[in-house]
Amino acid sequence: MRVFVAVAFLPAVVFGQQFTWGLGIPVPGNARTPIRIDPVEYALLTGHTAPFVEGEQIGANKWTTVVPNKEGNYSGGIFNGGYAQFTIESATEQVKFLEASGHNMVYVNGEPRVGDPYSYGYVSLPVLLKKGTNTFLFSVGRGSLKANLVDVAKPVSFDLRDTTLPDAKKGTNESSWASVMVRNSTAETLTGLTIEGVSSVGPCFAKLGNISPFSVRKSQFVVPLGGDGRIELTLKKGTQTLDTTEVQLGVKKPLETHKVTFRSKIDGSIQYYGVNPSQKPDTGQALFLSLHGASVEGIGQAQAYGPKDWGTLVAATNRRPYGFDWEEVGRLDALEVLSDAKERFKPDPQKVYLTGHSMGGHGTWQIGAHYPDKFAAIAPSAGWISFWTYAGGAKYPNPSPVEQMLLRAMSPSDTLALKQNFAQQGIFVLHGDADDNVPVSEARTMRKELEPFHKDLHWFEQPGAGHWWDADPAPGADAVDYKGIFDLFKDRKIPLDSQVSDLQFATSSPSVSAKCHWATIEQQVIPYTRSSLDLHRSKGSITGTTDNVARMTLTLSEPMTLTLDGNELSAKKGQVFLEKVISGWKINSKPTPASQKNPVRGGTIKSIFDHGVVFVYGTRGKDAQWAQNAARFQAEQFWYRGNSSVEIYNDKEFLSKDLKDHNVVLFGGIGTNAVADKWKGQVPTPPGDAVMMIRPRPDSNIASFVLLSGPMTDRMPFFSSGASMPDYMVLSKETLLKGTKAVVAAGFFTNDWKVSVAPEFMARSK
User: Fold this and answer.
1) Is 500 in contact with 517 (CB distance < 8 Å)?
2) CA–CA separation, 702 vs 479, rounded Å?
3) Distance of alpha carbon 66 from alpha carbon 53, whole angstroms
4) Rounded to whole angstroms, how far apart are CA atoms 393 and 409?
């Protein structure tokens, strides 16, 4: 590892603190897909070293001069899709904070660093400037870029522009989680840091996780919720004080809308959700889960509703205002909030409801479709259907085998493929008929699809209303807090399992959604292709059909005769484990083996972020520096996109720790990462410039690992919803010029995690 001495913290001498002149080049836009067309990245991966020069041609375009406007921003032209390059001369080797916004990411002297595409304004990255010329290559795409270099006052410091804090309550003895940003401007991995806090009602203390060199991390601690909410924080290394600051919690009365925090099981980060509490709080009331729209905070969503006296409304965050479109990690966030709120507020388990607006309306359709037995009724407002109808999903008119694999990986996004699940819920669809953001045609299409079979479908279009509207002076915005929605909710309950005699359930994959009432789909015949059950229970018997189901479990309240796909079986009371074999269905004495695919561990690549994920980089060979930089970059990406605080270890550190049931992302493969060497029996090694695959951890019954090999994996959209990936992908650099035609291989492992060349499991480019 490189070591830089304290000269890095002497007063900076940098020419061009603001980025005042540079070069730009347009790059064609890409749909939501893991396969990008990008000739600039191709040039970098095939030996071109920045800086590029004016007039140089890359692909069909040339680098030309770009200059800022009078406000210091760069906008228009390439800033709607392309690259901007700036060079900065430094008289010394030193560290600065790069504070930029409006970009997807940036290469700083060739090292990838997180961007601020949504211009949140809180991305402040320690970057090392070498003596002489330094190159900053920004990938841009939302229309504007602003960038500055800022002096570093302290080697290690707080940054309060991105905090996750609960609201305080006067008179309470409770405490809760909180987190603040800590910046590491040194060349060393920081360990052994602590945060000490002082408030009017007592102290707080926390040991912090590792913080990578020249990086940032959301660091967590526990705060008391009583008093005036003011907390003085001290960041320490042993007895040495590194920085001090003060945070102010909001102070709320018991029945006011407020924020609560929890520690996520996904990555150990601290998340919050908004609570609009019942005005007559009691156990056994209703619980409303509300999902916000793009750019909206969870607390703002909760505040958009008038108070209720018969239930509590909770508003999840989707991990960020834009987050994950309530899919992938965003979907998991909604489920974590639902679970935490059930434990906290003790509602009637039959009185749970789902609603949301705009992007949250889409989330309502999506989550309602995947988990039909979790909600008595759902109410999407101004919602869109899927990435293909509204949000730029990749479309392949005549899909090749590789493209078919990518579409299958994206199948959880296909709301309409699961439309039959909606029959289990009451539905109220709300939309303004003059909506110029999400067109009312999205709602009307859903109505057309559901009306032929749905018996509890309700509908209202507000005449002349746009995307957000409020038709009366009562508390709450009618675009979300519509009376008809809550009238419907009052009259609907989730049926008890014993009351469900007809069960129709479909899933895109058991990894996403497996269970509905008394039936669980454990495995599919063809992975990530729609599976379904159509079962009918009467006294002493269950009859029905299945489609694309290899294993399932039924929970029976009494002994029964099962007639499944024409195959008759006798089953005892309790859990019945069923497997489809050549001769038909058979009953097993044990559940699906943990070594095989199952709902807890079943792929795809991006499912690695579903629980306990840590990053581990290799320390050997020529790729060691790449691996460390790549782990830092992906951790920064997860922080920005998902308010994450993922732990990073080198391979030797990880092997010395007891982290058996954590999911792991390995940066570097066999020969470069000691963990990959230890698990080499689970690591196929296909040839390619970029190899990505998910495999079961051989030392765990529930955890998986993902292998990432080579710099081409840096820009894969692991945190962009809708850009889905199957179990494995092997790419050549040529994919950056030729797209899916140059994919070496992509596909799914079999249920026993083996490689199959059968066309339903593997696709290769010719």
Assistant:
1) yes
2) 42
3) 13
4) 12
Q: Token pair for residue 668?
A: 């570097």
Smallest CA-to-CA distance from 641 within 335, 354, 322 is with: 322
Q: Assess whether pLDDT exceeds 80 at residue 201.
A: yes
Phi, psi of 434, deg, nearest 5: -115, 25
Which residue spans within 249-348 are E strands per DSSP? 251-252, 258-263, 270-276, 286-291, 311-315
Q: Are 547 and 623 within one domain?
A: no
Half-sphere exposure of residue 684, counting CA atoms within 13 Å on the CB side? Answer: 19
Query: What's the pLDDT band for 236 if we cut at 50, 70, 90?
Result: very high
Residue 548: inside a domain: yes
- Cα distance between residue 659 and residue 703, in whole Å: 10
The tens digit of pLDDT for each residue in 64-81 reads 999 998 888 999 889 989
Pick the closest to residue 725 from 410, 412, 414, 417 (CA basis).
Answer: 410
The 3 state secondary structure assigned to 424-478 is: HCEEEEEEECCCCCCCCHHHHHHHHHHCCCCCCEEEEEECCCCCCCCCCCCCCCC
Secondary structure of 708-755 in the HEC alphabet? EECHHHCCCCCCCCCCCCCCEEEECCCHHHHHHHHEEEEECCCCCCCC
Name the residue among 461, 439, 443 with its Cα closest to residue 451. Answer: 443
Residues 301 and 444 in one domain: yes
pLDDT at 10: 26
| pTM recorded for the entire structure | 0.96
| Residues 408 and 483 occupy one common structural domain | yes
CB count in 10 Å sphere of residue 581:
9
Number of structural domains (the chain) is 4
